[in-house]
């Protein structure tokens, strides 16, 4: 023990001088552990384990991420149990019409009482940062003023947003859908993709296609109200995936909103940009696939050539070379493009 510790007075003085470095007389300074390593690579552009709206609103940051990310099992478990309520957010400090892409909203996109998805950063409701990470969350429309809507927060309160960043959502009745339809579906208020597998009264039974394959069947199926589901349509339609040809490479993107001859799209890990329509190829919702079909599939946001091994329901097992993965990867329909012949 150090010499000064033998005297109570000296010990007290020493503790006062070192209060930020020690926890008691004669105890060693605690050593902080360095942060752990990042989790493994994300398999494709889809956001397989979304952050519930409440968590994102509080943190204002994404998880691994649109696109289908595969974080570790602990993260999956935590996300599955997370609450969906959103904390009230203050009114934006900037005009909701101002944005980094100079997009103009359109009137008539939504009306009071509608359900919509909004491209949002969390508690910061502005769209002025082109490099920020954005999510798509569902809200009810409280008011409409031409190209600006007022949206209700789940936890109370409201905020305004430009219609340039909205995706209309919901169907009127369960019978507007049929078994096998591909839909946009809410999961903890975030936009996910699913297929209709049945009905129960006025509810629709769905199976999500972009949640982790390691999850049990009961976790990837749900009963949803019609207003929580949006029928996907082939081609250039908000919520569909597309292949973007940029800088000599091909990337998976999700279509958000059309802006003239361009589309606002969400790229890998939640990045947002605009892409000319002639640089985009919509992904077919139900491509004709069979074993040995040559296809393009996403991996970490980029498209790779692969060979279909089998197809089950709304998913295909695809062997892909050059990604460091020996086993076939499981890719949902809507993210598979039949490969053009060389």
Strand content: 35-45%
Biggest sheet strand line-up:
4-3-2-1-5
Tell me the structural class.
mainly beta
Order of helices and strands: HHHEEEEEEEEEEEEEEEEEEEE
Q: Work out the number of β strands.
A: 20
| Low-pLDDT segments | 1-85
The proportion of residues forming helix, as a percent range, comes to under 10%
Q: Give me the number of helical elements.
A: 3
Description:
With about 350 residues, the chain is mostly beta strands. About 10% of the residues lie in helices and about 35% in strands. It has 3 helices and 20 strands. The strands form 4 sheets. A 5-stranded antiparallel sheet has the order 4-3-2-1-5, with no helix packed on it. A 5-stranded antiparallel sheet has the order 9-8-7-6-10, with no helix packed on it. It has a 5-stranded antiparallel sheet with strand order 14-13-12-11-15, with no helix packed on it. A hairpin with a 2-residue loop joins strand 7 (about 190-200) and strand 8. It is globular, with a radius of gyration of 24 Å. It starts with 7 loop residues before the first helix and ends with a strand. The relative contact order is 0.13.
Short description:
The protein has helices at 8-17, 53-59, 73-81, and strands at residues 115-120, 135-145, 148-152, 158-162, 166-169, 182-187, 190-200, 203-208, 221-224, 229-231, 241-246, 249-259, 262-266, 272-276, 280-282, 294-299, 302-312, 315-320, 329-332, 337-338.
Structural features:
8% helix; single chain; five-stranded antiparallel beta sheet; 3 helices; disordered N terminus; 342 residues; 35% strand; mainly beta; 20 strands; globular
């Amino acid at each position: 023990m150090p010499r000064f510790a033998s005297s109570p007075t000296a010990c007290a003085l020493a503790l006062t001088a070192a209060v930020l470095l020690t926890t008691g007389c004669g105890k060693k300074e605690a050593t902080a552990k360095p942060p752990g390593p990042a989790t493994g690579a994300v398999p494709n552009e889809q956001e397989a384990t979304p952050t519930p709206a409440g968590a994102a609103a509080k943190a204002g940051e994404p998880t691994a991420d649109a696109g289908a990310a595969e974080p570790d099992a602990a993260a999956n478990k935590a996300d599955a149990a997370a609450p969906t309520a959103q904390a009230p957010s203050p009114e934006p400090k900037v005009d909701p019409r101002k944005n980094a892409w100079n997009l103009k909203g359109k009137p008539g996109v939504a009306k009071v009482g509608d359900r919509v998805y909004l491209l949002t950063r969390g508690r910061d409701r502005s769209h002025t940062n082109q490099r920020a990470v954005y999510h798509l969350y569902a809200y009810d429309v409280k008011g409409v003023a031409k190209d600006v809507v007022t949206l209700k927060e789940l936890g109370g309160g409201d905020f305004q947003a430009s219609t340039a960043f909205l995706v209309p959502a919901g169907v009127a009745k369960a019978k507007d859908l049929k078994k096998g339809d591909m839909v946009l579906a809410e999961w903890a208020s975030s936009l996910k993709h699913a297929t209709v597998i049945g009905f129960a009264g006025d509810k629709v039974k769905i199976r999500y296609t972009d949640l982790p394959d390691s999850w049990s069947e009961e976790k990837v199926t749900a009963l949803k109200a019609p207003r929580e589901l949006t029928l996907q349509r082939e081609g250039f339609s908000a919520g569909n995936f597309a292949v973007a040809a940029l800088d000599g490479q091909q990337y998976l993107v999700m279509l958000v909103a059309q802006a003239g001859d361009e589309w606002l799209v969400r790229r890998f890990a939640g990045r947002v940009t605009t892409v000319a329509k002639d640089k985009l190829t919509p992904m077919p919702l139900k491509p004709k696939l069979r074993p040995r079909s040559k296809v393009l599939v996403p991996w970490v946001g980029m498209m790779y050539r692969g060979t279909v091994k089998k197809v089950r329901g709304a998913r295909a097992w695809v062997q892909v070379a050059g990604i460091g993965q020996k086993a076939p990867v499981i890719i949902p329909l809507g993210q598979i493009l039949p490969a053009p012949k060389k």
